[in-house]
User: Fold this.
Amino acid sequence: MGDIANAKKLFHRLEQIDTINRLAFNQLSAIYELEKNAPKATKYYTKLRNLFPENPVHRRKLGQQYQAAGLMTEAFENYSAAYERMDSTEWALYHYEKALDEGISSNTDLYHRNLARMYNDAGKLREAIEHYKDAYKYGEDPLVLFYLARACDIYYKDKSVAVNYDSKYIRSSEPTEEYKQLAKDRRQHLREQMHQGK
Assistant:
């Protein structure tokens, strides 16, 4: 046990010298995990995640620490991000759904957005549309309306659904003029399609 105590002192000293030292964070997170000190292990895995956000190992380890602390929403959120970065769509979807099952969180709209994007990419538009609707409901980000209109355009024969979402998006406070112009063009095209179909 003395070796671990000395190692902790050494790595804490290294952390003081270099406040973004990957080696110190890796070793301290592993030591605290070994000691079953979830709060401190979480602290260092969080630092690693912030330094290397694309590294799925840190996200997965962080998820394990949150799970050990009983913080299941945070655990599922980190597992989801880890599996998504590992291109394991099935597991990422599973964990995002589990995060939603845990209840309302400040990231509910983000979970729905990620699920919508992943279902959309998988060609499961019905599921994507439902999650886009929920993402907008919980976050009210106008850009979600743009993606919702696009998914509805592809999924529904009745183009009026997509036209309605494009119209809402165009009237929104979304500052991206490029997307607004794309929505206007799509809406015009769909209206012409609807008129020709009559």
User: Anything to note?
Assistant: The longest helix spans residues 177-197.
